[in-house]
């Protein structure tokens, strides 16, 4: 009996021990899921809430608040950082925290500083065992927010005192990141004022640079400034979307616009490509890299079209990949071009390397590949301001570089021009010496032929007469070509125009027509001088008479019997010149012949070749141009006449 009692007491002690251990375990398990409340009594003006929160992940996203508070309450886990980063996830995230407002003074507010959460719902106890919901987010109208603020701001219940437990539910198609804070009324005002000041300076700087570069483009018409304006526009649009200001001020009732923030990625990528191609002068200096960027632009276009077909979060992944490719490509391109000796790329490299690094870190933070902190949302701001400063300096450096390059090219061109002018001057001297030598050498046998002709005039037979006639004709043509050629080259080589004065073309032409009266009558032609007798032009009268004589001679020789030659004038007083036209009804000319008819030694037709030297119109052009005029020819075609135009300045 005593032994049985002792055995029974032993079993009872073991049972009590096991029961005690079980109670301890259960109490520890219960303590593990309890929320450590945030005391507002000694919190100052703000409290970082992230480390005080507990996290529960709902993979299917269909748990209710009651289920979270009861069935799944033990699954909450403590968070150990001030920021919460869940990356791209399809799960719904539940958060739980408690606030001890026993000795709190004034109002306190929960502020979620990450403004692009798709859906965030705060559950606040209503004092009657239930909860009141505040459902906001950047996919919901801005008017649903309890406070007009770009961040998500909720007023906490601090008047009743005691410990209050709150629940938050977040979900979205984009990256789920949180930077929760508790602010007193004073702390919230100070935070808002400081943030508005910094944001105002940021956007003000971007807008000023955008307007400044737009004005530069309108003034200089340099596309590099237009591409920079496109880039700034993309940066502004991106930051307005991700900062919450767009939903607050621009499209408060159309939150759908916020979902297209990825458009800025393609605007920035395209404008950066166009900017780089022109800024780095890839087409002129690095054609291989020019072709690379052309293929990159095609890739951007394909990705842009694909972006419209993909659903979030895959569309967000695609735009992030485009941003990362852009980071790698242009960082490499800038360094490569700089290393190959293009000095102006140094500030370009400095600007884009820092900017693209900030975008790279921002993308890693959104993807959850690096810790998400309060600095991450502001990385695009820092990068954009850095680019504005560096590229402003880079554009100035580029202007100085191109100016120095232009001056160097101008000096080289000047030296080349001077060398060519010296060569031309030497050629002219050589030509003059050659012509003098040739004229001397030609004149000697011509004189011999003349002397021989004089000696043989008395003893010419009938057969010899034809030979001597041919000799005389050759002598005359040789003498004419030598004299005419020397006259043409003398006119071409003179450095100063002839002595000019006021001339009356009508009277000059009238005297010439009287001198040619017999020739006109033999040819059976009619010549009408319709030039105004009051017309006065500025020219050298002797050379003008020479040009008119050559023009009339050509018109008479190439006109058929019974035809007419008409000379008219037209005055343009505002332009300060007069046109004199000599029209005939002769053989005319083809368009190909008109292109060369004013060139020296150009002959047209066998008769012209026999009697002329192809220099009359060329000499006429030289003489007219040297007094500030113009000479050109027109013809409707072969057999349809010929018109010679003389344009002379009014006296």
List the helices and strands and how they pair.
Elements: H1 2-33, E1 38-39, E2 46-48, E3 54-58, H2 65-69, E4 77-78, E5 84-88, E6 92-100, E7 108-112, E8 119-125, E9 131-136, E10 152-155, E11 163-171, E12 175-178, E13 180-184, H3 185-220, H4 223-243, H5 245-250, H6 263-279, H7 282-285, H8 287-309, H9 314-339, H10 345-367, H11 379-455, H12 462-493, E14 501-503, H13 505-515, H14 517-523, E15 526-529, E16 537-539, H15 541-557, E17 564-572, E18 577-584, H16 591-596, H17 606-611, H18 616-625, E19 630-634, E20 642-649
Parallel strand pairs: 1-6, 15-17
Antiparallel strand pairs: 2-13, 3-4, 3-6, 5-12, 6-11, 7-10, 7-13, 8-9, 8-11, 14-16, 17-18, 18-20, 19-20
Helix pairs in contact: 3-4, 3-11, 4-6, 6-8, 6-9, 8-9, 9-10, 10-11, 11-12, 12-18, 13-15, 15-18
Notes on the protein architecture:
A hairpin with a 4-residue loop joins strand 17 and strand 18. The chain starts with a helix and ends with a strand. The chain folds into three domains: 38-190, Immunoglobulin-like; 192-411, Rhopdopsin 7-helix transmembrane proteins (Up-down Bundle); 494-649, 2-Layer Sandwich (Heat Shock Protein 90), CATH 3.30.565.10. Helices cover 55% and strands 16% of the residues. The chain has 18 helices and 20 strands. By secondary structure, it is an alpha+beta fold. The strands form five sheets. Strands 1, 3, 4, 6, 8, 9 and 11 form a seven-stranded mixed sheet that branches. The chain has a five-stranded mixed sheet with strand order 15-17-18-20-19. Strands 2-13-7-10 form a four-stranded antiparallel sheet. It is rod-shaped and about 145 Å long.
């Amino acid at each position: 009996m005593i032994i049985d009692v002792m055995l029974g007491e032993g079993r009872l002690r073991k049972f009590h021990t096991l029961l005690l251990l079980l109670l301890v375990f259960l109490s520890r398990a219960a303590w593990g899921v309890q929320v450590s409340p945030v005391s507002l009594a000694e919190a100052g003006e703000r409290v970082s809430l992230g480390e005080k929160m507990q996290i529960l992940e709902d993979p299917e996203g269909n748990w209710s608040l009651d289920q979270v508070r009861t069935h799944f309450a033990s699954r909450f886990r403590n968070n150990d950082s001030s920021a919460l980063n869940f990356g791209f996830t399809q799960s719904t995230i539940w958060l739980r925290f408690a606030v001890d407002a026993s000795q709190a003074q004034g109002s306190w507010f929960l502020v979620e500083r990450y403004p692009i959460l798709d859906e965030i719902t705060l559950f606040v106890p209503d004092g009657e065992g239930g909860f009141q919901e505040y459902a906001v987010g950047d996919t919901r109208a801005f008017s649903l927010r309890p406070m007009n603020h770009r961040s998500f701001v909720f007023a906490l219940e601090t008047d009743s005192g005691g410990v209050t437990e709150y629940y938050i539910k977040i979900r979205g198609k984009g990256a789920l990141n949180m930077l929760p804070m508790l602010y007193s009324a004073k702390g919230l005002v100070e935070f808002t004022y400081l943030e508005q000041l910094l944001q105002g300076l940021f956007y003000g700087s971007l807008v000023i640079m955008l307007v400044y570069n737009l004005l530069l483009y309108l003034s200089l018409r340099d596309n590099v400034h237009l591409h920079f304006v496109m880039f700034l526009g993309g940066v502004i649009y991106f930051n307005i979307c991700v900062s919450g200001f767009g939903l607050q001020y621009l499209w408060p009732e159309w939150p759908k616009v916020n979902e297209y923030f990825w458009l800025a990625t393609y605007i920035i990528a395209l404008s950066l490509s166009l900017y780089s191609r022109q800024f780095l002068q890839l087409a002129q200096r690095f054609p291989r890299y020019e072709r690379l960027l052309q293929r990159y632009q095609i890739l951007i276009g394909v990705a842009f079209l694909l972006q419209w077909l993909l659903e979030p979060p895959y569309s967000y992944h695609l735009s992030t990949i485009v941003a990362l490719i852009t980071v790698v490509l242009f960082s490499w391109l800038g360094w490569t071009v700089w290393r190959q000796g293009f000095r102006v790329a140094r500030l370009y490299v400095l600007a884009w390397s820092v900017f693209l690094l900030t975008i790279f870190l921002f993308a890693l933070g959104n993807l959850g590949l690096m810790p998400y902190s309060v600095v991450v949302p502001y990385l695009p701001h820092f990068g954009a301001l850095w680019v504005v400063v560096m590229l402003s300096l880079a554009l100035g450096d580029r202007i100085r570089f191109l100016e120095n390059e232009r001056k160097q090219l101008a000096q080289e061109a000047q030296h080349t021009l001077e060398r060519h002018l010296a060569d031309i001057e030497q050629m002219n001297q050589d030509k003059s010496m050659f012509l003098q030598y040739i004229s001397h050498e030609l004149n000697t046998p011509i004189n011999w032929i003349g002397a021989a002709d004089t000696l043989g005039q008395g003893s010419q037979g009938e057969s010899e007469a034809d030979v001597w006639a041919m000799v005389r004709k050759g002598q005359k043509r040789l003498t004419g070509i030598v004299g005419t050629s020397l006259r043409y080259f003398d006119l071409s080589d003179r450095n100063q125009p002839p002595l000019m004065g006021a001339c009356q073309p009508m009277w000059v032409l009238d005297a010439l027509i009287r001198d040619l009266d017999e020739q006109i009558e033999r040819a059976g032609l009619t010549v009408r001088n319709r030039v105004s007798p009051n017309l006065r032009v500025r020219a050298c009268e002797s050379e003008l008479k020479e040009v008119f004589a050559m023009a009339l001679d050509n018109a008479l020789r190439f006109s058929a019997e019974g035809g007419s030659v008409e000379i008219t004038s037209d005055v343009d007083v505002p332009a300060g010149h007069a046109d004199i036209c000599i029209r005939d009804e002769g053989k005319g000319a083809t368009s190909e012949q008109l292109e060369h008819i004013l060139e020296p030694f150009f002959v047209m037709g066998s008769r012209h070749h026999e009697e002329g030297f192809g220099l009359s119109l060329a000499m006429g052009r030289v003489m007219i141009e040297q007094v500030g005029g113009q000479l050109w020819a027109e013809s409707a075609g072969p057999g349809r006449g010929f018109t010679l135009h003389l344009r002379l300045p009014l006296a």
